[in-house]
Amino acid sequence: MEPCNHTKLMNYIIGMCKRHKDWISTLADLGYEPALIEQQIRTSSDEVVKPDILATSNKLIHSLIFECKGGVTVDADQLRRYSTLTEDNVLRWTRPFTHQNFHFDACLVDVEENHPVVAAIGNQFPIITFGTKTLFKTNHFKEKKLNEAFKVPINLDEKTPPLSYYPFCEDDENAYLSLFVLRGLVSMAVRNAKGGPSTSEENIITRDDLLKSIFNPVFDALSKSHKDRLKEKIKEVVRWIMAKEGMKEALGLIETQAGIKIGRPLEKFTKEAYKFIETVETQRPLIEFMSNKDSGNPPS
Amino acid sequence: MTLAGSDPQQKFKSRKEFMEWLGEMMVAPVEERTEEFEGEVRGRPRELKTYVMESNDGLEKIAAANTVKTSLQPTDLPEVSILRLEYENRSATFYLDTTDTRFLLLYTNDLAKITDHLYDRLVNSTSNRFDRVWLPTEVLGVISHLSGNLFRGFGLKFDDLFALGRPEDQPIHELKMSVAGLSSADALDALKTKEGLRRTLSYSKVTVRRANREGFVTDEVGYKGRLITKSGDSIDDHVSLVEIVRKAYRGLIEEIERSSIGTKTVEERTLIEGEAFDLVLDRKIEELDAFVDCLLDSTAPFRLWGLKNKVFKNMRQVVAVDLHTGDSLDLEVTPSSVRVYLPKGGCGNTILRMYVNLQHSFDSAIRLNEEKLQMRL
Predict the structure, then answer these.
(1) What topology is assigned to A5-155 in CATH?
(2) Is pTM beyond 0.80 here?
(3) Which contiguous run of DSSP H or E holds residue B191?
């Protein structure tokens, strides 16, 4: 089961700002540190953009503003708004050690299969494209060090991208998110046994600290609207799991006044959790087929 | 049962009195009446043992331990208490020094067989956040060669918990060895030249001699954080070695926790900080699913629960829970590495528990590919 393209691309870029044995560190080598995720920024023409990631390099006095395009939908108006972004707008949200010579690039990130569509509309922006074997760049950055770094395609063969810096987004399948929700329940149950805070379905969907245990502490770097959307999504998945026939009983989830308890040994819970994930996984192609059939599209 | 050196009435009016008491425990004479324990007749002098224990709750929740009966008695020294552990018909007394509230020191000279068992039960209690300290082979090597320490022997222990098929078909599925004496280092060098042993040479202990003008001590420092005095009478040398181990371990854990994943604000910038750890394997994982299942079986030594997900052919994503604390942990396992994401606020001991136990049960040539940490190791 794979995360959606958007989740993958977010992790690929954050991972490039880190140093890992099995992944590329092109951006870390140039001093970029990832900062904000989907922060709303008002542009000089009083419009709004929400870049997926903002990374700044003190070494180059430069920011990279990434818009990750996991699908084929490219909003031409959104790209136009990015063209109205100025240095001052960006500097409201990031602080390189000096403002002198500060510059930035807005950059699109896409996957190879969708690249022709994204490139056709986003032709005035540099684009980083992830293929199965290579990463390549289209168009040019204002920062020449970046043009040098991406001058030739970067080999991704034998590389293993990170996937856990940004664990999921609202576009991910419920089945994928259920891994994190089930883990969150176990985590809270274990913490309860050790005298930690108690949990309940309501708590999971409203309290930030409980949400963080389902997402991760990077949750703090998300914009408020992004947090709200993820909360809604997690809420939906919790309900989805609880509403599955016989699921509560199979997983041994007992709703009490104090919260949800796992009334089964972990071993049994694990077995049932795998069964549940397997079931929703095998149902997925059929659901997709049915929905595509309705819309007249071929199954992807 | 009255045990040599144990006196729950002790009050310790000063630090000096406490140290002298520990010194007496170290040189406790052979008991006149030999004691029978599980058929063994024991008449050896008591050995002073010190356990370095990690606690995420200080001493607060020690009474909540659900695997062993505890009773705690204060002394006149605020940082020293007397801890009695009991389980079934076994009991032992520990002198607990909480000067460092995260890394507690438990001194005892009761029989090792009993104290090990009771200590095991205490650190594995599911109602506490206690853990052992897990000393990597590299750290034991460095400690045994520090200025003032003389390397006088070592023990090796490797038990392949991840072997596929019959254990007897593995190149080496178990290795246990103990070498003591002046030329121990030569024996170790000889072992290192054997290619077939390369991935099985993990220290279970190192023997260290420390001396001053008035005395000496020879201690065994075990990889699970137990120091045991084999000979000598210098309590200061023993306790200073314990301090070296505790401080080295604390430094390592703090460095690990500085790399945990979270956010920080620096000069008005919100940064995503931290970096996952790469545990780089020399031995290839043949069956990813079997490896991950073994890692996540919820029991000691790994104490991890989790669900695995096949994302790519050669990668398993794991959403895990550290049963020591209840914290979430993300892993990505490939045939040549285990990438571990420790969330901010998570316990650094999780990383070392996994690393050290992989050294002893899968690949002693495993490396922590994190520059700052590698320097400390």
Answers:
(1) Trna Endonuclease; Chain: A, domain 1 (3.40.1350)
(2) yes
(3) helix B184-192
